[in-house]
Amino acid sequence: MAGEFELISKYFAKQKLTRGDVELSQGDDCALLISPPGTQIAVSTDSLVAGTHFLENANSKWIGHKALASNISDLAAMGAEPAWVSMAISLPEPDEKWLEGFCEGFFSLADAHNLQLIGGDTTRGPLSITLTIQGFVPIGKALLRSGAQIGDKVFVSGTLGNSHAGLEVILDKEKRLLPNASVLEKSHYCASSRANFGMLLRDKASSCIDISDGLISDIKHIMARSNVGADLHCDKLPVSQELVEFCQDKQTAQNYALKSGEEYELCFTVPQHLIESVRQVAENESVQITEIGEITDSKMLKLFRNNKALQENVAGFDHFRS
Ligand code: ADP
Ligand code: MG
User: Fold this and answer.
1) Contacts 24+ apart (CB under 8 A), 97-100
2) Domain covering 153-310: architecture
3) Which of 7, 122, 123, 124 to mutate to test the pocket of ligand 1 (most atoms within 8 A of CB)?
4) Which residues hold ATP (predicted)?
5) Would you say the CB of residue 170 lies under 6 angstroms from ligand 1?
6) Binding site for substrate: residue ranges?
7) Domain boundaries, the chain
8) Ligand 1 site, residue 118, Cβ cutoff 6 A
9) 322 residues of the chain, pLDDT tens digit each
10) CATH class held by domain 4-138
11) Which of 76, 189, 216, 305 would bridge 198 by S-S if both were Cys, CB 3.0 to 4.6 A apart?
C-alpha cells in the first residue's frame, strides 16, 4: 500500500512547472512565490466534503474538476487571474484508481488555466478536499459585491438550472428516466468557471458574484453589500434546451434557474452606459450573457413574470438551513 510521501510524489508533485513566479513549488516546508508589481493577490478557500458536496461513489475525475472549478469561479467573480493553488486532501485509504481519476480532472483544468499546484497536505480521514487558490488583480480593480448602483442592469452569464437538475438526477433514481438525465448529471459536476470573462469585466461591471448558492441567494449578497434592492424577471432567465426538455416546460426550468447552486456562472451589474461595451466583450469571448433585471432603491428582492409581481419566496441554498 502506498504511503503518504509516495502518494504525494506520484500524484500531486507531477505537474510541470511553467510559471516564472513560482520560485519554489512543492517539496519544502513552504512554497516561495513572487507576486507581480502593481497587483493585489486575491485569495479564496473552498472545501468539498463527501456526503455534503458529492456522493462518495461519484466519478473521481468529476470531483477533481469540480473542486478546482469552484475555486477558480471565486477568482472569476473578483476579476482575478488564476495563478497558484494549494490542496489539503483527506482520504479514507490510498485508493490509487480514485486518485488517478481525481488528478486527471484536477490537472487538466489547472493546466487549462495556467494554474500551478504549489503545495498542500495529505492525510488519512473522511474524504474531503480543501483548496486555497490565489490570483492577481491590478491594485484597486477587483470586482466587489459592494459596487451595484440604483439603475444598473443585472446580468448573468451562460444558462442556469442544469446543476440543480443534475443533483436531482443524482439523488432520485426515478429522475434518471427523464430526458437528458445523464447530460444534466454531468453538468452538475463539470460546470466550467468564467475566469477569462471575469477579468474582462474589470472597469465595466459595478459588482459581481459567482452563482454558487443559487441566483436568489447570491443576488441577495450583492444587495446587502451594495445596500440596494433588485427586480428580477423570471421569464428572462436563460435556461438550456436540455433543461427545458427535462422539466417539460420553460417556466419550470426557469424556477430551477432561480435556485440552482454550484452553477459557477457570474451574476453582475452594469451601469447603463457600459452595457454595449460588456455585450461586445461577451461576444468576442463567445460567452452568452442575459439581462435579467435591474438594481432598485427598494432594498428588497422583487420577482416578476411577464411584468407581473410574483408572491412566491424562493430561498437559495444555505448549509445550515436546508
Ligand atoms: P510538512 O510536514 O512540512 O507539512 P508534508 O510532509 O505534509 O510537509 O508535505 C511534503 C510536501 O508535499 C510539501 O511541500 C507539501 O506542500 C507537499 N504536499 C503534500 N500534500 C500535497 C497535496 N495534496 N498537493 C500538493 N502538494 C502536497
Ligand atoms: Mg503536512
Assistant:
1) 97/60, 98/60, 99/7, 99/11, 99/60, 100/11, 100/60
2) Alpha-Beta Complex (3.90)
3) 122
4) 120-121, 145, 212
5) no
6) 53, 262, 317
7) 4-138, 153-310
8) no
9) 678 889 999 999 989 999 999 999 999 999 999 999 999 999 999 999 999 999 988 999 999 999 999 999 999 999 999 999 999 999 999 999 999 999 999 999 999 999 999 999 999 999 999 999 999 999 999 999 999 999 999 999 999 999 999 999 999 999 999 999 999 999 999 988 899 999 999 999 999 999 999 999 999 999 999 999 999 999 999 999 999 999 999 999 999 999 999 999 999 999 999 999 999 999 999 999 999 999 999 989 999 999 999 975 555 555 656 4
10) alpha beta
11) 76
